Amino acid sequence: MALDQKRFDQGDSTGFRVLAQARCFAEAEQLILAYITTNNNQSSNLWWHAAQMAARGGRLVAASQHARRALDAEPAKDDPFLWNDYVLGSIAFFERDRAGLQRHRDVIAERGMALWANRMNLNMLDAMLENFDLSYEEIGAKAVQRWKTKTQTQN
User: Fold this and answer.
1) How far apart are the C-alpha atoms of 80 and 112, rounded to whole Å?
2) What's the pLDDT at 110?
3) pTM of the prediction?
């Protein structure tokens, strides 16, 4: 709880990631939620990572709830990073709304390809569409595999 947000949230071997690497997703989610409360920190990154941990643990209702708190309330119209479309596409997946997932995926594909982060997020949304009936945990592995294949063929 005493770690600064960067070390808690982004460190490879600190904070919640220690639990995530051990595949203790429910515990990682609870640790993030405790960090949010203890530190009164409403960072969208923290809420997003709580959503991911809930989803990886198969708790899709909780994942949707946490992800909604990760949305940017007032995204700049000219912001090239299409964060909300990625989060909304993920929420659509959590809620089993394939049409919503496709809609937000298409926005990123149409408007966001100049930015590397959008391409990474698009890869994940595409993996969700291609493997719609798999768990979020399994889709994460598919997305990594997809990205490696794509980048190897481009080089």
Assistant:
1) 6
2) 96
3) 0.91
